[in-house]
Amino acid sequence: MSDPKIKFKPVVTYRMRGVAESHSATALYVRDLIDVSDEPLERGGTNEGFAPTEFVLAGLVACTNVISHKIAKANDFSIESMEINAEAQFNRMGVTLGEHVKVPFPEIKLIIDVVTEATKVQQEKLMADLPRFCAVSNIIRQSGTKIIEQWNFSAS
Length: 156
Known about the structure:
Blueprint: E1 17-20, E2 26-30, E3 33-37, H1 52-74, E4 79-89, E5 107-116, H2 120-133, H3 135-142, E6 146-154
Helix pairs in contact: 1-2, 1-3
């Protein structure tokens, strides 16, 4: 149940500020939080944070977590624990300025391990609804990336 003091807004505006700290490191400011994006040492960075393309995967993993829990709650079951592992094929030709790459991530595989007492029907609802409601998944899929989800359910 939602808090009656919080007004629901169907569309919101996100604001983020990025400040280049070096050729590879960017300080990222959103709300009252600060994070850093950087390249690994082998690509000339200082390895202070996720590379920009790793943030894409991080967003997918985090969105998978948040939306899965929302789906569970809406369908009267709980997720006791969840682990999400992502493995992506990444075509680096674009980021190395070799050539334009329309779909840099041709395929991403998510291995989603869930501990829950959900019924088979509830599990199927979760698997069907996640691609429908995860905004990051939708953005990535619409870019042409194939996302493969491997769900592994176990009872506590």
